[in-house]
């Protein structure tokens, strides 16, 4: 079963509260100002544009009092309106209900997610709705959607997937990794507005990749740059990781061991090329080979989840260990540097990030130092190897270490 996200393009009308605010090219009517944008955009792009002008702005809300005004202005045939159809019927974009006296204007096409004001055809019927061609829809698995921010990223909301469960923050990060994605990062305000709108409509709080590091600031678990403008939408708290709230659409901080729905994001794979020759060597440049596997010993540092995302960008996984020869190779190679592995302690159970079996975990247990509370991710460092034969150390998953990626040799 595929899901559909409305992608019909139309012009837009912005609606802005007049109080203390005036904008050139806006037209006054009653207590509001209206901006008619004749460029064709998608509905959520229009909503994001209005809110980028001022947080209290929204798409035009056609009601009895302004119907004739909206019909008379603008040169485009159709303009996006603020209402959409959800599980509770027609409502404004902020979730509030339409006026009871006007609800009959929007009946007839409940399968459409947004409506338009049709210039010159504004009747007491569903004539103001636009039915788009099938190629104006985004198809994907349940929960996946394109929030139409222009960067080509796709987002997954587990709250929209009937088969998805709730997880702790670490569990959500792994669930995203299983789909070749990362916990959602929000690169800019436009993406925030679009994603926040989807979360509020879904009715569940969702984990994101937001991390709060004391004395440092905010960052994203996939290593992408944090836009300082987003701070205005972060509710202060004592937690270390962030979720988007279904109540107010803003980021809230919480402890990572709480369970919630989650959001993932991924950029579409680049189009394949036929000009690049296959690699002549078993491993890419900068990688090292041992047996039939290639290993990348990174120079960069990152949290455990950042390391995992960096390996996935290389079409690889964090290191897993399943034979004695590899242990010898690693001890000789690692030295006194600290590198993340793919081993993690989840509720006293060890798991490898790449999903490989832990039936042979007794192979590495003699090299593990004792577990300590709050140190659930395993790294490598040979400082303890000589006195205690230990080179696998438990560390805080938010510590910044180098890491080792692995993938099969060609």
Automatic annotation (TrEMBL):
The keyword Signal applies. Residues 29-110, 150-265, 290-406 form the C-type lectin domain. The keyword Signal applies. Keywords: Signal. Pfam families: Lectin_C (PF00059). It comes from the Eukaryota. Residues 1-24 form the signal peptide. This is Lymphocyte antigen 75.
């Amino acid at each position: 079963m595929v899901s559909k996200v409305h992608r019909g393009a139309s012009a837009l009308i912005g609606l802005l509260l007049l109080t203390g605010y005036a904008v050139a090219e806006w037209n006054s009517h009653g207590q509001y100002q209206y901006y008619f944008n004749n460029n064709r955009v998608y509905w959520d792009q229009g909503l994001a544009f209005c809110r980028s002008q001022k947080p209290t702005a929204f798409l035009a809300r056609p009601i009895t009092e302004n119907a004739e005004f909206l019909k008379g202005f603008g040169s485009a045939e159709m303009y996006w309106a603020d209402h959409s159809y959800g599980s509770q019927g027609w409502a404004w974009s902020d979730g509030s209900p339409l006026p009871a006296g006007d609800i009959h204007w929007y009946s007839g096409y409940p399968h459409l997610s947004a409506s338009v004001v049709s210039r010159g055809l504004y009747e007491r019927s569903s004539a103001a709705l636009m039915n788009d061609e099938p190629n104006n829809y985004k198809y994907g698995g349940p929960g996946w959607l394109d929030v139409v921010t222009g960067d080509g990223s796709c987002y997954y909301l587990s709250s929209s997937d009937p088969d998805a469960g709730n997880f702790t923050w670490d569990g959500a990060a792994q669930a995203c990794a299983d789909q070749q994605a990362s916990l959602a990062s929000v690169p800019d305000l436009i993406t925030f507005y679009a994603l926040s709108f989807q979360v509020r409509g879904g009715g569940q709080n969702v984990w994101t990749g937001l991390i709060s590091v004391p004395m440092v600031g905010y960052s994203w678990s996939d290593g992408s740059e944090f836009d300082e403008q987003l701070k205005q939408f972060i509710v202060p708290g004592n937690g270390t990781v962030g979720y988007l709230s279904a109540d107010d659409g803003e980021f809230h901080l919480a402890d990572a061991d709480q369970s919630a729905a989650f959001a993932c994001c991924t950029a579409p794979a680049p189009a394949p090329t036929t000009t690049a020759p296959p690699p002549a060597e078993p491993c890419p440049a900068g990688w090292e080979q041992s047996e039939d596997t290639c290993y990348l010993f990174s120079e960069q540092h990152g949290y455990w989840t950042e390391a995992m995302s960096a390996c996935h960008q290389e079409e690889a996984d964090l290191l897993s260990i399943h034979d004695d020869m590899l242990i010898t190779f690693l001890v000789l190679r690692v030295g006194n540097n600290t590198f993340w592995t793919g081993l993690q302690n989840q509720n006293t159970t060890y798991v490898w990030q790449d999903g490989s079996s832990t039936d042979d975990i007794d192979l590495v247990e003699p090299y593990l130092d004792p577990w300590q509370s709050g140190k659930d991710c395993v790294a490598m460092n040979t400082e303890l190897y000589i006195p205690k034969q230990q080179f696998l150390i438990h560390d805080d998953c938010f510590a910044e270490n180098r890491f080792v990626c692995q993938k099969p040799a060609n």
